[in-house]
Amino acid sequence: MTLDPVHFDGIAQLARRIDHGADERDRRAFAETVWTEFLDPLIDRDGRTVLEPVDERHRRHVDCEDVALRDRSFASEHGLDAGTINPTTFKNGLVIDIAQAAMAATPSDLDRHRSRTTVMTVHSNDETMTVDESWGKFDEGYSRSRAVKIPPLPRFAEGVVHALALYLAESKHALENADAVDDLLVLDGPIYPRGLLRWADQHPDLADFLLEDPRPTTVLENYVRLVERFVERDVPLVGFVKNPATRVITRTLKNKRDVDVATPWNDDAALFTRLLERGEYVDDVDGQRWERHTSALTYTNWFRSRGGVDRPLSVEGDALGVERDLSLESYEVTFFVVYDPRDDLVYRIEAPYAFTREPETRRAVTMQVLQDVAVAHGPPTVVEKADELAKISRSEKASLRETLETQFDTSRDRTYDDHRWDEEY
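RESULT FIELD:
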Protein backbone atom coordinates (compact mmCIF):
# COMPACT_ATOMS: atom_id res chain seq x y z
CA MET A 1 0.00 0.00 0.00
CA THR A 2 1.41 3.39 -1.00
CA LEU A 3 1.02 6.82 0.56
CA ASP A 4 -1.95 8.86 -0.56
CA PRO A 5 -0.92 12.27 -1.98
CA VAL A 6 -2.36 14.06 1.04
CA HIS A 7 -0.27 11.91 3.38
CA PHE A 8 2.85 12.45 1.29
CA ASP A 9 2.34 16.22 1.38
CA GLY A 10 1.75 16.12 5.12
CA ILE A 11 5.06 14.37 5.69
CA ALA A 12 6.90 16.66 3.28
CA GLN A 13 5.58 19.72 5.14
CA LEU A 14 7.52 18.65 8.21
CA ALA A 15 10.68 19.80 6.46
CA ARG A 16 9.49 23.39 6.79
CA ARG A 17 9.85 23.11 10.55
CA ILE A 18 13.57 22.41 10.31
CA ASP A 19 16.20 25.12 10.14
CA HIS A 20 19.21 23.22 8.82
CA GLY A 21 21.69 25.82 10.03
CA ALA A 22 24.46 27.21 7.87
CA ASP A 23 23.84 27.26 4.13
CA GLU A 24 25.80 25.21 1.64
CA ARG A 25 28.21 28.02 0.75
CA ASP A 26 29.19 28.43 4.40
CA ARG A 27 29.75 24.70 4.80
CA ARG A 28 32.00 24.61 1.75
CA ALA A 29 33.94 27.56 3.13
CA PHE A 30 34.32 25.85 6.51
CA ALA A 31 35.56 22.68 4.82
CA GLU A 32 38.29 24.79 3.20
CA THR A 33 39.20 26.18 6.61
CA VAL A 34 39.54 22.67 8.02
CA TRP A 35 41.74 21.66 5.09
CA THR A 36 44.08 24.64 5.30
CA GLU A 37 44.31 25.09 9.07
CA PHE A 38 43.80 21.75 10.84
CA LEU A 39 45.13 18.79 8.83
CA ASP A 40 48.86 19.47 8.67
CA PRO A 41 48.93 17.91 11.22
CA LEU A 42 45.68 17.24 13.09
CA ILE A 43 46.30 17.43 16.85
CA ASP A 44 43.81 16.12 19.40
CA ARG A 45 42.91 17.71 22.73
CA ASP A 46 45.73 15.83 24.48
CA GLY A 47 48.38 17.09 22.08
CA ARG A 48 48.70 13.82 20.14
CA THR A 49 49.10 13.83 16.38
CA VAL A 50 46.24 11.71 15.03
CA LEU A 51 46.60 12.61 11.35
CA GLU A 52 49.35 14.08 9.20
CA PRO A 53 50.30 14.13 5.51
CA VAL A 54 52.82 11.55 4.35
CA ASP A 55 54.33 14.20 2.10
CA GLU A 56 52.91 17.55 1.02
CA ARG A 57 49.20 18.19 1.46
CA HIS A 58 47.37 18.54 -1.85
CA ARG A 59 44.17 17.96 -3.77
CA ARG A 60 44.36 17.03 -7.43
CA HIS A 61 42.10 15.95 -10.25
CA VAL A 62 42.55 13.75 -13.29
CA ASP A 63 40.32 13.42 -16.33
CA CYS A 64 38.41 10.12 -16.24
CA GLU A 65 39.10 9.26 -19.88
CA ASP A 66 42.77 10.23 -19.72
CA VAL A 67 43.55 8.14 -16.66
CA ALA A 68 41.56 5.19 -18.02
CA LEU A 69 43.79 5.09 -21.11
CA ARG A 70 47.18 5.48 -19.43
CA ASP A 71 49.65 2.61 -19.10
CA ARG A 72 48.98 0.46 -16.04
CA SER A 73 51.28 0.84 -13.05
CA PHE A 74 51.05 -2.89 -12.30
CA ALA A 75 50.86 -5.62 -14.92
CA SER A 76 48.65 -7.86 -12.79
CA GLU A 77 46.28 -7.29 -9.90
CA HIS A 78 44.64 -9.55 -7.33
CA GLY A 79 41.54 -8.80 -5.23
CA LEU A 80 40.31 -10.52 -2.08
CA ASP A 81 36.94 -10.52 -0.33
CA ALA A 82 34.91 -12.58 2.15
CA GLY A 83 31.16 -13.08 2.39
CA THR A 84 28.96 -14.54 5.15
CA ILE A 85 25.48 -15.97 5.65
CA ASN A 86 25.07 -13.53 8.60
CA PRO A 87 24.61 -14.70 12.21
CA THR A 88 21.84 -17.29 12.62
CA THR A 89 20.34 -18.29 15.98
CA PHE A 90 18.86 -21.76 16.47
CA LYS A 91 16.36 -22.99 19.06
CA ASN A 92 18.97 -25.26 20.66
CA GLY A 93 20.95 -22.14 21.66
CA LEU A 94 23.59 -22.21 18.93
CA VAL A 95 24.52 -18.96 17.20
CA ILE A 96 26.38 -19.63 13.95
CA ASP A 97 27.88 -17.67 11.09
CA ILE A 98 29.69 -19.00 8.04
CA ALA A 99 32.18 -17.02 5.97
CA GLN A 100 33.96 -17.87 2.77
CA ALA A 101 36.89 -15.92 1.32
CA ALA A 102 37.96 -15.89 -2.31
CA MET A 103 40.68 -14.28 -4.40
CA ALA A 104 40.27 -12.91 -7.92
CA ALA A 105 43.01 -12.13 -10.42
CA THR A 106 43.47 -9.91 -13.46
CA PRO A 107 44.49 -11.50 -15.82
CA SER A 108 42.27 -14.41 -14.73
CA ASP A 109 43.70 -17.37 -12.82
CA LEU A 110 41.12 -20.17 -12.71
CA ASP A 111 42.90 -22.19 -10.01
CA ARG A 112 43.02 -19.08 -7.81
CA HIS A 113 39.35 -18.37 -8.46
CA ARG A 114 38.44 -21.93 -7.50
CA SER A 115 40.13 -21.80 -4.11
CA ARG A 116 38.12 -20.92 -1.00
CA THR A 117 38.72 -20.57 2.72
CA THR A 118 35.59 -21.32 4.75
CA VAL A 119 35.15 -20.64 8.47
CA MET A 120 32.17 -21.49 10.69
CA THR A 121 32.04 -19.77 14.07
CA VAL A 122 29.80 -21.26 16.78
CA HIS A 123 28.55 -19.75 20.02
CA SER A 124 26.64 -21.59 22.76
CA ASN A 125 25.94 -21.01 26.43
CA ASP A 126 26.09 -24.79 26.91
CA GLU A 127 29.60 -25.47 28.25
CA THR A 128 29.38 -29.13 27.16
CA MET A 129 29.28 -28.15 23.48
CA THR A 130 32.55 -29.06 21.74
CA VAL A 131 34.05 -28.22 18.34
CA ASP A 132 36.85 -29.86 16.38
CA GLU A 133 38.82 -26.71 15.46
CA SER A 134 41.43 -28.30 13.20
CA TRP A 135 41.79 -27.13 9.60
CA GLY A 136 40.51 -29.50 6.90
CA LYS A 137 40.61 -29.54 3.09
CA PHE A 138 37.92 -30.08 0.46
CA ASP A 139 37.39 -29.67 -3.29
CA GLU A 140 40.42 -31.83 -4.15
CA GLY A 141 42.64 -29.74 -1.90
CA TYR A 142 41.86 -26.39 -3.53
CA SER A 143 39.97 -25.16 -0.47
CA ARG A 144 40.23 -25.35 3.32
CA SER A 145 37.76 -25.06 6.17
CA ARG A 146 37.60 -24.73 9.94
CA ALA A 147 35.00 -24.52 12.71
CA VAL A 148 35.70 -22.28 15.71
CA LYS A 149 33.99 -22.23 19.11
CA ILE A 150 33.32 -18.82 20.65
CA PRO A 151 33.21 -18.55 24.48
CA PRO A 152 29.92 -17.48 26.12
CA LEU A 153 29.20 -13.82 25.35
CA PRO A 154 25.39 -13.68 25.29
CA ARG A 155 25.01 -9.94 24.70
CA PHE A 156 27.46 -9.88 21.81
CA ALA A 157 27.15 -13.40 20.40
CA GLU A 158 25.95 -12.41 16.94
CA GLY A 159 28.53 -9.65 16.46
CA VAL A 160 31.41 -11.82 17.64
CA VAL A 161 30.58 -14.87 15.53
CA HIS A 162 30.16 -12.65 12.48
CA ALA A 163 33.39 -10.67 12.90
CA LEU A 164 35.59 -13.66 13.72
CA ALA A 165 34.22 -15.75 10.85
CA LEU A 166 34.68 -12.93 8.37
CA TYR A 167 38.16 -11.81 9.43
CA LEU A 168 39.56 -15.28 10.04
CA ALA A 169 38.46 -16.46 6.59
CA GLU A 170 39.77 -13.33 4.87
CA SER A 171 43.15 -13.20 6.62
CA LYS A 172 43.81 -16.93 6.32
CA HIS A 173 42.96 -16.95 2.62
CA ALA A 174 45.18 -13.95 2.01
CA LEU A 175 48.12 -15.59 3.78
CA GLU A 176 47.64 -18.92 2.00
CA ASN A 177 47.59 -17.23 -1.41
CA ALA A 178 50.08 -14.44 -0.79
CA ASP A 179 52.84 -15.95 -2.90
CA ALA A 180 50.55 -16.05 -5.94
CA VAL A 181 50.35 -12.24 -5.98
CA ASP A 182 53.09 -10.84 -8.22
CA ASP A 183 52.32 -7.12 -8.40
CA LEU A 184 49.46 -5.80 -6.24
CA LEU A 185 46.84 -7.14 -3.81
CA VAL A 186 43.66 -5.15 -3.16
CA LEU A 187 41.56 -6.16 -0.15
CA ASP A 188 37.86 -5.39 -0.32
CA GLY A 189 37.82 -3.23 2.81
CA PRO A 190 40.44 -1.92 5.25
CA ILE A 191 43.89 -3.48 5.66
CA TYR A 192 43.22 -4.36 9.32
CA PRO A 193 40.07 -5.86 10.96
CA ARG A 194 38.34 -2.65 12.01
CA GLY A 195 35.30 -4.39 13.43
CA LEU A 196 37.48 -6.40 15.78
CA LEU A 197 39.70 -3.46 16.78
CA ARG A 198 36.61 -1.41 17.60
CA TRP A 199 35.57 -3.87 20.32
CA ALA A 200 38.01 -2.42 22.84
CA ASP A 201 36.02 0.85 22.90
CA GLN A 202 32.51 -0.61 22.93
CA HIS A 203 32.02 -2.50 26.19
CA PRO A 204 34.13 -3.91 29.06
CA ASP A 205 33.03 -7.48 28.25
CA LEU A 206 34.36 -7.19 24.70
CA ALA A 207 37.54 -5.51 25.90
CA ASP A 208 38.09 -8.42 28.31
CA PHE A 209 37.42 -10.88 25.50
CA LEU A 210 40.19 -9.26 23.45
CA LEU A 211 42.61 -9.59 26.36
CA GLU A 212 41.67 -13.07 27.58
CA ASP A 213 40.79 -15.08 24.47
CA PRO A 214 43.52 -15.90 21.90
CA ARG A 215 41.20 -15.95 18.88
CA PRO A 216 40.90 -12.19 18.22
CA THR A 217 44.66 -11.79 18.70
CA THR A 218 45.30 -14.67 16.31
CA VAL A 219 43.13 -13.02 13.68
CA LEU A 220 44.92 -9.68 14.06
CA GLU A 221 48.27 -11.50 13.94
CA ASN A 222 47.27 -12.91 10.54
CA TYR A 223 46.94 -9.37 9.18
CA VAL A 224 50.24 -8.30 10.76
CA ARG A 225 52.00 -11.31 9.19
CA LEU A 226 50.31 -10.51 5.88
CA VAL A 227 51.85 -7.03 5.92
CA GLU A 228 55.23 -8.50 6.76
CA ARG A 229 54.97 -11.08 3.98
CA PHE A 230 54.19 -8.45 1.37
CA VAL A 231 56.91 -6.10 2.62
CA GLU A 232 59.40 -8.96 2.43
CA ARG A 233 58.33 -9.72 -1.15
CA ASP A 234 58.19 -6.00 -2.06
CA VAL A 235 54.63 -6.35 -3.35
CA PRO A 236 52.21 -3.56 -2.35
CA LEU A 237 49.12 -4.40 -0.30
CA VAL A 238 46.19 -1.97 -0.23
CA GLY A 239 42.62 -1.89 1.04
CA PHE A 240 39.75 -0.38 -0.95
CA VAL A 241 37.06 0.89 1.45
CA LYS A 242 33.79 1.38 -0.41
CA ASN A 243 31.87 2.92 2.48
CA PRO A 244 34.34 4.85 4.63
CA ALA A 245 32.75 5.73 7.97
CA THR A 246 35.71 6.96 10.01
CA ARG A 247 35.20 9.95 12.31
CA VAL A 248 38.78 10.71 13.34
CA ILE A 249 38.80 14.22 11.87
CA THR A 250 35.26 15.25 12.77
CA ARG A 251 35.48 13.84 16.30
CA THR A 252 38.87 15.43 16.93
CA LEU A 253 37.65 18.84 15.78
CA LYS A 254 34.55 18.61 17.97
CA ASN A 255 36.65 17.73 21.02
CA LYS A 256 39.31 20.42 20.60
CA ARG A 257 39.19 22.79 23.54
CA ASP A 258 41.28 25.51 21.93
CA VAL A 259 39.15 25.88 18.79
CA ASP A 260 35.57 27.06 18.59
CA VAL A 261 34.25 24.95 15.73
CA ALA A 262 30.95 23.19 15.14
CA THR A 263 31.58 20.53 12.51
CA PRO A 264 28.44 20.00 10.41
CA TRP A 265 29.50 16.64 8.97
CA ASN A 266 28.44 13.27 10.32
CA ASP A 267 31.74 11.61 9.39
CA ASP A 268 35.01 12.20 7.58
CA ALA A 269 33.61 10.99 4.25
CA ALA A 270 31.12 13.86 4.21
CA LEU A 271 33.94 16.33 4.86
CA PHE A 272 36.09 14.91 2.05
CA THR A 273 33.11 15.02 -0.31
CA ARG A 274 32.88 18.76 0.26
CA LEU A 275 36.65 19.19 -0.15
CA LEU A 276 36.89 17.18 -3.36
CA GLU A 277 33.67 18.07 -5.18
CA ARG A 278 34.35 20.49 -8.04
CA GLY A 279 31.73 22.69 -9.62
CA GLU A 280 30.21 26.15 -9.65
CA TYR A 281 27.08 28.04 -8.78
CA VAL A 282 24.91 28.77 -11.81
CA ASP A 283 21.77 30.83 -12.27
CA ASP A 284 18.47 29.00 -11.96
CA VAL A 285 14.80 29.94 -11.87
CA ASP A 286 14.88 29.98 -8.06
CA GLY A 287 18.16 31.85 -7.77
CA GLN A 288 21.39 29.87 -7.96
CA ARG A 289 22.18 26.20 -7.72
CA TRP A 290 25.38 24.18 -7.45
CA GLU A 291 26.37 22.37 -10.65
CA ARG A 292 28.89 19.59 -10.15
CA HIS A 293 31.63 18.91 -12.69
CA THR A 294 31.64 15.21 -13.56
CA SER A 295 34.49 14.71 -16.02
CA ALA A 296 37.38 14.25 -13.55
CA LEU A 297 38.20 12.18 -10.49
CA THR A 298 39.55 14.20 -7.58
CA TYR A 299 41.78 12.89 -4.84
CA THR A 300 43.87 13.89 -1.83
CA ASN A 301 47.43 13.22 -0.82
CA TRP A 302 48.21 10.27 1.45
CA PHE A 303 47.77 10.73 5.22
CA ARG A 304 49.20 8.81 8.16
CA SER A 305 46.45 7.94 10.63
CA ARG A 306 46.99 7.25 14.34
CA GLY A 307 43.51 7.98 15.63
CA GLY A 308 40.47 5.84 16.41
CA VAL A 309 40.80 2.17 15.45
CA ASP A 310 44.00 2.95 13.53
CA ARG A 311 45.84 3.67 16.78
CA PRO A 312 46.53 0.04 17.87
CA LEU A 313 48.72 -0.49 14.77
CA SER A 314 50.49 2.86 15.06
CA VAL A 315 53.82 3.57 16.75
CA GLU A 316 51.80 4.48 19.85
CA GLY A 317 49.71 1.29 19.90
CA ASP A 318 50.34 -2.20 21.25
CA ALA A 319 48.65 -4.15 18.40
CA LEU A 320 46.69 -6.06 21.09
CA GLY A 321 49.96 -7.66 22.14
CA VAL A 322 50.82 -9.04 18.68
CA GLU A 323 54.57 -9.03 18.09
CA ARG A 324 55.69 -6.85 15.18
CA ASP A 325 58.97 -7.74 13.47
CA LEU A 326 59.36 -4.60 11.33
CA SER A 327 59.78 -1.04 12.56
CA LEU A 328 56.51 0.00 14.24
CA GLU A 329 55.89 2.81 11.76
CA SER A 330 55.86 0.29 8.91
CA TYR A 331 52.46 -1.00 10.08
CA GLU A 332 50.79 2.39 10.43
CA VAL A 333 47.65 2.96 8.40
CA THR A 334 48.03 5.47 5.60
CA PHE A 335 45.24 6.47 3.25
CA PHE A 336 44.10 8.78 0.52
CA VAL A 337 40.56 9.62 -0.57
CA VAL A 338 39.14 9.46 -4.10
CA TYR A 339 35.96 11.26 -5.11
CA ASP A 340 34.00 10.03 -8.14
CA PRO A 341 31.65 12.84 -9.20
CA ARG A 342 29.78 10.57 -11.60
CA ASP A 343 28.15 8.85 -8.62
CA ASP A 344 28.86 11.49 -5.94
CA LEU A 345 30.79 8.89 -3.90
CA VAL A 346 34.07 8.89 -1.99
CA TYR A 347 36.36 5.90 -1.49
CA ARG A 348 39.16 5.50 1.03
CA ILE A 349 42.27 3.62 -0.09
CA GLU A 350 44.53 2.31 2.67
CA ALA A 351 48.05 0.89 2.70
CA PRO A 352 50.72 0.26 5.35
CA TYR A 353 53.29 3.03 5.69
CA ALA A 354 55.95 0.49 4.72
CA PHE A 355 54.80 0.98 1.11
CA THR A 356 53.65 4.59 1.01
CA ARG A 357 56.83 6.01 2.55
CA GLU A 358 58.43 5.58 -0.91
CA PRO A 359 57.24 8.28 -3.37
CA GLU A 360 57.54 6.00 -6.40
CA THR A 361 55.39 3.25 -4.88
CA ARG A 362 52.95 5.81 -3.51
CA ARG A 363 52.45 7.32 -6.96
CA ALA A 364 52.16 3.92 -8.67
CA VAL A 365 49.45 2.74 -6.28
CA THR A 366 47.60 6.05 -6.54
CA MET A 367 47.52 6.00 -10.34
CA GLN A 368 46.54 2.33 -10.47
CA VAL A 369 43.56 2.91 -8.18
CA LEU A 370 42.49 6.02 -10.09
CA GLN A 371 42.65 4.10 -13.35
CA ASP A 372 40.67 1.22 -11.86
CA VAL A 373 37.93 3.54 -10.57
CA ALA A 374 37.75 5.44 -13.86
CA VAL A 375 37.44 2.25 -15.91
CA ALA A 376 35.04 0.41 -13.60
CA HIS A 377 32.94 3.48 -12.79
CA GLY A 378 33.31 2.43 -9.16
CA PRO A 379 35.40 -0.07 -7.16
CA PRO A 380 38.17 -1.87 -9.11
CA THR A 381 36.97 -4.69 -11.32
CA VAL A 382 39.21 -7.18 -9.52
CA VAL A 383 37.55 -6.28 -6.21
CA GLU A 384 34.08 -6.68 -7.67
CA LYS A 385 35.16 -10.02 -9.13
CA ALA A 386 36.36 -11.18 -5.71
CA ASP A 387 33.07 -9.99 -4.22
CA GLU A 388 31.13 -12.13 -6.71
CA LEU A 389 33.28 -15.17 -5.96
CA ALA A 390 32.92 -14.81 -2.18
CA LYS A 391 29.25 -13.82 -2.12
CA ILE A 392 26.74 -16.28 -0.67
CA SER A 393 23.42 -15.65 -2.41
CA ARG A 394 20.08 -15.36 -0.64
CA SER A 395 18.92 -18.78 -1.86
CA GLU A 396 22.26 -20.34 -0.85
CA LYS A 397 21.96 -18.83 2.61
CA ALA A 398 18.50 -20.30 3.00
CA SER A 399 19.71 -23.73 1.85
CA LEU A 400 22.69 -23.65 4.21
CA ARG A 401 20.45 -22.76 7.15
CA GLU A 402 18.09 -25.60 6.29
CA THR A 403 21.05 -27.98 6.15
CA LEU A 404 22.19 -26.80 9.59
CA GLU A 405 18.67 -27.31 10.97
CA THR A 406 18.77 -30.91 9.78
CA GLN A 407 22.33 -31.44 11.06
CA PHE A 408 21.50 -30.12 14.55
CA ASP A 409 17.97 -31.59 14.66
CA THR A 410 16.54 -28.18 15.47
CA SER A 411 15.14 -25.13 13.70
CA ARG A 412 15.97 -21.45 13.43
CA ASP A 413 14.84 -19.15 16.20
CA ARG A 414 12.60 -17.05 13.99
CA THR A 415 10.92 -13.71 14.65
CA TYR A 416 7.94 -12.09 12.98
CA ASP A 417 10.31 -9.95 10.89
CA ASP A 418 11.93 -13.14 9.54
CA HIS A 419 8.47 -14.39 8.54
CA ARG A 420 7.50 -11.04 7.06
CA TRP A 421 10.59 -10.61 4.90
CA ASP A 422 10.57 -14.23 3.79
CA GLU A 423 7.01 -13.74 2.61
CA GLU A 424 7.85 -10.54 0.72
CA TYR A 425 10.94 -11.94 -0.95
